[in-house]
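[Meeting: bench + compute handoff]

Bench side (C.D.) handed over the final construct sequence. Compute side (W.E.) agreed to return the predicted structure before the next meeting so the bench team could plan truncations. Sequence as handed over:
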Amino acid sequence: MTAVWMIGLLGVLAVSAALTWGARQYAVRRNLMDQPGERRSHGVATPRGGGIAIILTLLLAALAAAFVWPGARLELGVVSLGLLLVAGIGWWDDHRPLPAIHRLLVHVLAASLLAGLVWHATGNVLQAVLALLFTTSLVNIWNFMDGINGIATTQAILAGVAFALVLPPPYGLAGVVLGLACLGFLPFNFPSARIFMGDVGSGALGYAVAALVCLVSVRTDIHWLALLIPLSAFLVDAGFTLLSRMLSGQRWMEPHTQHLYQRAVKGGASHSHVTNLYFVFGLFSAAVFNACTYMQPRWEAAVAVAWLILATGLWLLLRKGMRD
């Protein structure tokens, strides 16, 4: 039985890699390219839309899981529908740019599906509302943070592993599959990019991570604040960058290069160097998360608050250094 599971998981990796290769051929034929520009962090025209490989792999895995665990078909179907909605609007936007409000409405609709599952599982309206807001935010955060080679993919892999380790079987497989689907795409995007994820992948990947967080929230007793720890690199950089843009009166929804990782690249650091630094911070975040899940809920929350304050202080220090 173990051999069958190993073959299945290796199949996830192989399918993701094969689909990424196919997505690159499609993007080249259709001239679906990201061009360099003032608000971009790359210097050469690069095919985009490769993230569809990750999403299709996740959907195929969900289909297989529905046959193995018939009792979970409703939940798998709802999550898959939400994933399709976010990926679909992203695919459309990759081919023909859409107004931000149109994308946001679809994101909210998809997030409401996850919120409905949380409500059904817990009966807690507040938890469902938090799931709605969190999912909508994370879809856009992952899109904002997908600006240099490998950064969005590696952070999703870390999140998948971190949450897989605390989920009871067989739910932990969801995190493992997410990590493997991303790992199949990674060699095409890091250290040098032969294809970018595109909106079809980045937003939907944020949705997949949010779905995993929601799963942990209903299948474990871990305090909800602690669930933010593995995502802290993205939450802090995206959150405070957007806040600073709002406070300064800028049009915060417009593309920009003011995130910390973008400033580092503009300052001369390579994509690989910056992505690796975020990966190291993510490893520490995952280790802190794993360690604190053995504590009582109030101490989990205290550790989470302390870690987020530490991450915020580091962000402020690095941002000030780059500005100066």
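W.E. noted at the follow-up: The beta strands are 33-34, 46-47. C.D. will use this when planning the next construct.
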